[in-house]
Design goal:
Blueprint lengths: L1 E2 L2 E8 L8 E6 L1 E2 L53 E10 L3 E9 L2 E7 L2 E8 L4 E8 L2 E10 L23 E10 H17 L4 E4 L2 E4 L2 E3 L1 E6 L14 H12 L4 E4 L6 H10 L2 E4 L12 H17 L5 E4 L9 H19 L6 E2 L20 E3 L34 E6 L21 H12 L6 H25 L3 E6 L28 H5 L5 E5 L5 E3 L3 E10 L5 E12 L6 E12 L3 E11 L7 E11 L2 E13 L9 E3 L2 H9 L3 E4 L31 E6 L20 H4 L5 E2 L6 E7 L7 E2 L1 E6 L2 E6 L11 H14 L13 H4 L5 H6 L1 E5 L27 E3 L6 E19 L13 E7 L5 E8 L7 E17 L7 E7 L4 E7 L4 E3 L1 E7 L26
Parallel strand pairs: 15-16, 15-22, 16-17, 17-18, 18-19, 20-21, 21-22, 24-30, 31-32, 32-38
Antiparallel strand pairs: 1-11, 2-3, 2-5, 4-11, 5-10, 6-9, 6-11, 7-8, 7-10, 12-13, 13-14, 23-25, 25-28, 26-27, 26-29, 29-30, 33-35, 34-36, 35-37, 37-38, 39-41, 40-47, 41-44, 41-48, 42-43, 42-44, 45-46
Helix pairs in contact: 2-3, 4-5
């Protein structure tokens, strides 16, 4: 073998400005990491279809742009280049003969030349590149390699084999680059066959279950998309993969799904050594239809993968594509048969199973689905759960997804489970010491600093992480409880750096712990043996009973025989007072499924004080603990005492009382706060708020859990299940960050609002306790809300209520803006000459601009500017302006108003210019203000919008995804127009969760 690593000459071909275009590079290596390519600017074209092209117009991404461009949707390489690079070097042949050029890693369309003569061309994203150079004479020869990384086929630009999302668009050569003799070349193939013979593997499906080497197996996996933050090219030493695999094994996982990606041999080898299973997806996230070229490309890539890596025992699961488009059903069922036959021809029969795709439902119900060895999806389009879902909250609280896969004759695995975000720990920035720069983290960090919340970073990460683990626990346990589910892929145990930054891992992008969950804690819900319950709730009244079954999901190597199942309900903190407990002796828990081992039926009348409790369970054989699990529970005792605290929901009443020196609990109606006070949610954001934007962007809660205001409402620092009902009917008020909160919501890192939920302060002559949650209702129906309200009122009436901080009441009152007042005055909105194109039926034409719900928008296509929005009022009033809200739920923020004029019609029918100006491209509510003007007709004239100009889009067609340069049609999109006017009129108030209607998204990837 002749090692060709070292210095090569290189030239980048193509037009345009290069920082460096010609010179030398070290191989293995990529040109971008060695100073070649183009500088990154706001106009850089990225290989991605999942970001806002005009991101730089958005206010929230204006941060950290002083010293070069930092993009907010990925970790960026030092330079960008997608195109043709020519590499050359001399070689000296000592012995005449037939030679092969072997390049372990390169991409995409690669040609090999000897002395200027073309010797071969390969177009691939998978497996080593092997070129037969023919007979070479003794002496010096020039080897030329041309690697063209531009789009060779109509791939979706978001597949991890091609996308910039995780840094896949490098141009270079990696791993072994060598000249091989015929004998050396053939030895590589022979070594693979010998390895397979020595490392046998057999996987099959029997009775609807997976069996690996005869043992029933449950696949507990996480995601990997080929990211290497410190190096441009994938690791070929195995060091990176060994760290990754050893880490996830410590947390209980046993398999890795390679999303639209095929890793190099080093990962398979590491997985063999660490006994971790791998699922491969052919580097594809593509369109498949009968008779198109992509079907042949898929077959060619499949053959390369199986030939290069089929000998590895870790490679047990194979899929053609993530979330395929088009009429894929028959095409990819045929692929299953093709892949199986290819394996057989290679001598690798029965070493792996095949699924027809990853993600979507089939064209048949589960019990009739054929042509695939297993179902790997997140919904089946069947059953009583919406869309036949097999992940998420519909299976929580002791439930399951049985109805979604009822009757399935083959095993099911859940695709992309658990995408719950965690607020970023900006300390990770210091770890980016290699190829990728943390542009997105730099933007978010500066945003946090500008909004005054950066000092809370550590607390935000810890509390949002603790909350995330609650949901991951629910997701995994629901999966285990479901008959026919024998696996899941958790997306993701480590943070995902693309698509806006999906910070969903309990490990950071470098596979290091974030510190809020230990290995042992996570293994309670991710291991061969998991104890399960079917608790219907985690919030109880002491007048109720805990009634639940105990189940064990066991996939260990042996049956569990003669074991004891211990359970105990006790106080979580303090004295750990025992409430109830017991032991169940079980003669046998067979491996390979779920076993019901008993029930718990216990009343809670012996609980005399509201508190936090924990239900602990363990399986023991003599003194050995085989498995354990626990569930946090809140138990509330009704407080019948009456408080003398002054409670009001009216802002005027509140301020008058404060001026008189009273103690006031002010709780505004949910309808009475402006749009800068977003709705809250108990659940953390899903995937991320760039990909799935929403007015509600909760990331958890931070409470001062030891505060006397919580005396009757015990709570965790991070706000446990006791907040579920409360936060679903609450809003966060924007406050200066220096105000100390008793309960502070954590906002999404793209927006970084400084929010308050509960805080106290001296105001005027009095004392204010503010809370922006609907706490109405009785103890029987809303025990947690009832208890919190009682606790706050009791505290406000006590001597302990002595706020230290002083604020101006305007901090609160400036955000009180009864939204129904501004909505009810509107009788009609129209745009003469145009029709709305609203994506969801809940929107009623142009009135979607004033439907209260900020998550819905009126969307108008093919506008000619200037264009007018006509707003007719129910009767004349003294208009002082409009509260305007730009779209909140559209990833691309199409048609956001930029320049405007506002006119009002006089009583004599003439128009008067009331206001003109420029609006920001942002999430915040903006006021179009004017002097009071009596009118019943307004015209908002749109002069220009954001997002205009030529851009690159990827268009999905029957044959695949195609790049096109275009200027989008003129759009207009408005979330809310809310009229501001003077005058005393009756105003509606209520606590309806007006933001809960379906979001007006123009994208399909997010399913939360």
């Amino acid at each position: 073998m002749m090692d060709l690593s070292g210095v090569w000459n290189v030239e980048l071909l193509g037009e345009g400005k290069f920082v460096k275009k010609k010179g030398t590079v070290n191989i293995p290596g990529a040109v971008q990491e060695q100073g070649y390519g183009r500088e990154i600017t706001k106009d850089t074209e990225w290989v991605s279809g999942l970001h806002n092209t005009f991101w730089y117009e958005r206010s929230e991404y204006s941060y950290a742009q002083e010293h070069g461009t930092n993009v907010p949707f990925l970790a960026q390489p030092p330079f960008v280049f997608n195109g043709l690079a020519r590499y050359q070097r001399k070689v000296s042949i000592k012995e005449q003969g037939e030679y092969f050029l072997f390049i372990e890693i390169t991409r995409w369309k690669v040609k090999a030349y000897v002395d200027g003569v073309l010797k071969g061309e390969i177009v691939s994203l998978v497996a080593p590149f092997e070129f037969n150079l023919g007979k070479l004479d003794v002496g010096e020869h020039i080897i030329t390699v041309e690697a063209d990384t531009s789009m060779q086929y109509p791939y979706r630009p978001d597949g991890h084999g091609v996308s910039d999302a995780l840094g896949a668009s490098w141009n270079g050569m990696g791993g072994e680059v060598s000249l091989l003799t015929r004998a050396e070349y053939e030895k590589k193939a022979a070594d693979r066959r010998k390895y397979a013979a020595k490392h046998k593997r057999e996987i099959c499906v029997e009775d609807g279950k997976f069996f690996v080497d005869g043992e029933p197996t449950y696949f507990r996996g996480t995601h990997y998309g080929g990211d290497h933050p410190l190096t441009a090219l994938p690791d070929t030493t195995g060091e990176y993969y060994r760290k990754m695999l050893r880490t996830i094994k410590k947390y209980g996982f046993n398999f890795v799904r390679c999303h639209s990606y095929c890793p190099p041999d080093a990962m398979f080898q590491a997985a063999d050594e660490e006994d971790v299973y791998i699922l491969v997806e052919c580097d594809m996230w593509n369109v498949f239809n009968d008779g198109i070229e992509m079907n042949d490309v898929l077959k060619a890539e499949t053959e390369r993968i199986l030939k290069a890596f089929g000998h590895h025992p870790s490679f047990v699961l194979f899929s053609p594509s993530n979330e395929p488009g088009g009429g894929w059903h028959n095409v990819l069922r045929e692929w299953v048969a093709y892949a199986r036959e290819t394996d057989k021809k290679l001598g690798y029969e029965h070493r792996r199973l095949y699924t027809a795709q990853s993600g979507w439902h089939y064209d048949t119900i589960p019990q009739e689905t054929t042509g695939t060895d297993f179902l790997y999806l997140h919904k089946t389009n069947f059953g009583e759960l919406g869309g036949g879902i097999v992940r998420g909250p519909q299976g929580w609280n002791g439930r399951d997804y049985n109805s979604s896969i009822e009757g399935a004759k083959i095993p099911c695995m859940c695709h992309e489970l658990g995408q719950w975000c965690v607020y970023p720990d900006f300390g990770v920035i210091d770890k980016f010491k290699g190829y990728l720069s943390p542009g997105l983290f730099k933007v978010f960090k500066q945003s946090a600093k500008a909004h005054g919340v950066l000092s809370m970073n550590e607390t935000f990460t810890r509390c949002s992480g603790k909350r995330q683990m609650m949901f991951i626990k629910e997701d995994l346990e629901a999966n285990y409880r479901t008959d026919g589910m024998y696996g899941y892929e958790y997306l993701d145990a480590h943070d995902y750096l693309g698509q806006g930054g999906a910070l969903i891992g309990f490990l950071d992008a470098f596979w290091d712990s974030k510190g809020y969950v230990t290995e042992d804690e996570f293994k309670e819900i991710c291991s061969e043996t998991v104890i399960l319950t079917r608790l219907r709730s985690y919030v109880y009244k002491n007048t109720e009973s805990i009634s639940t079954s105990i189940e064990v999901c066991h996939f260990g190597k042996e049956d569990l025989t003669d074991v004891d199942v211990f359970w105990e309900l006790k106080e979580k903190y303090g004295e750990h007072t025992h409430i109830a407990g017991g032991v169940m002796s079980v003669s046998r828990i067979p491996k390979g499924g779920n076993t019901k081992v008993g029930r718990i039926e216990r009343g809670l009348s012996n609980v005399k004080k509201s508190g936090l409790f924990v239900l602990e369970m363990s399986i023991r054989k003599r003194k050995e603990i085989i498995a354990k699990n626990h569930w946090d529970i809140s138990i509330f005792v009704k407080d019948n005492t009456e408080s003398k605290a002054f409670f009001t929901r009216d802002v005027t009443e509140a301020e008058d009382a404060l001026k008189r020196g009273m103690s006031v609990v002010f709780c505004p109606f949910l309808s009475d706060m402006d749009y800068d006070c977003p709705g809250l949610s108990f659940r953390n954001s899903f995937w991320n708020a760039q990909m799935g934007p929403n007015w509600v962007r909760s990331m958890g809660l931070v409470t001062d859990s030891a505060h006397p205001a919580f005396q009757g409402f015990p709570t965790e620092e991070y706000g446990g299940w006791e907040w579920d009902d409360i936060l679903s009917s609450a809003r966060g008020i924007q406050i200066p960050p220096e105000i100390k909160c008793i309960a502070r919501p954590i906002d999404d890192w793209n927006r970084n609002y400084s929010l308050g939920l509960i805080f106290e302060a001296k105001v005027h002559k009095g004392k204010l306790l503010f809370v922006s949650a609907n706490l109405e209702g009785n103890f029987d129906d809303r025990p947690a809300a009832y208890a919190l309200k009682k606790s706050l009122l009791s505290y406000a009436a006590s001597d302990a209520f002595s706020p230290k901080q002083k604020i101006d009441f305007s901090i609160v009152s400036d955000h009180i803006a009864p939204l129904y007042k501004g909505f009810d005055i509107i009788s009609e909105i129209s745009m003469p000459g145009f029709e709305p194109d609203t994506p969801i039926k809940e929107n009623e034409g142009f009135m979607a601009m004033a439907d209260i719900n900020p998550n819905t928008s009126c969307f108008v296509k093919n506008l000619k500017l200037p264009a007018r929005i006509k707003i007719e009022l129910t009767y004349p009033v003294a208009v002082t302006g409009i509260r305007y809200l730009a779209p909140q739920s559209d990833r691309h923020f199409l048609g956001v108003i930029k320049d405007y004029r506002l006119y009002g019609k006089n009583s004599d029918g003439k128009e008067k210019l009331l206001s003109e100006g420029t609006l920001k491209n942002c999430f915040e509510e903006q006021k179009i203000e004017c002097n009071a003007f009596e009118t019943d007709i307004l015209y908002l004239e749109v002069l220009s919008t954001y997002g205009r100009g030529k851009t690159v889009r990827y268009r999905k067609e029957r044959e695949g995804w195609f790049r096109e340069e275009r200027e989008d049609p003129q759009y207009l999109q408005v979330a809310e127009l809310n009229i501001m006017f003077t005058g005393d009129i009756p105003v509606r108030h209520n606590d309806l969760r007006f933001w809960r209607g379906r979001s007006a998204r123009h994208t399909e990837e997010i399913d939360d």
